# Entry
Amino acid sequence: MGNSLQIARVLGIPIKIHISFLLVLPFFAWIFAIQPEPFGFAGIESGLLKYSLSLLTAILLFISVLIHELAHSYFALRYGGSINEITLYLIGGVSAMGKELSDPSSEAKMAFVGPLSSIVIGILLLLFNSLFSPAASSLEESPLFLMTFILGYINILLGLFNLIPAFPMDGGRILRAFFAQRMGFVEATEKAASIGKIFAFVMGIIGLFISFWLILIAFFIYMGASGEEQQVKSRYGKL
# Structure
């Protein structure tokens, strides 16, 4: 992929960053810098410390996303699939499968382990904070613990968000695996994609009254569901 740069290789899988990742990283750092406690570092007086912690938090967040994708990849390899590469994008991480899993049960397990890894990371970070954070009146007085709190909280949200039963979320793949045990793979994909599109439409309507970010997420979900459906139909000659 011409717009991606390989930075490492893990489990024999090339790890790449897309050019969009280089744009979003400073943006995320800026968001963390202007957000007040407990979801940002705006209360820290030292500008150097504030932006250093914000950038470090953004980097660690994407490392968490990489761990999420590696969990998928490990189980894909374990169940006989293959992974061509993992790419970190503006919107997160994507594992590009070379050989997909034919068993719906294995696909469901592979899909579920990603969100599970994010939730486990989040719980461990929050547990660490709870056990070792000093008895300070504010997390701003212990910025490293504020950082672990932010990362823990976001990882749990990411894990739960990915369980939404809509492509391209992992929950959409779990739903397709459920359908695929009762019907053909293409039909199962169509049903799961349709549910994803409906979910995206409802989220977009809600976003009109609540937040523009919900509209963007809804658009991402709708395009992901449509893309997955078209890709599967093309592969099986059903277009």
About this structure: The chain has two domains: 1-163, 165-239. The two ends are 26 Å apart (CA to CA). Helices lie at 19-34, 47-78, 104-132, 143-162, 170-180, 185-209, 212-235. The chain has seven helices and four strands.
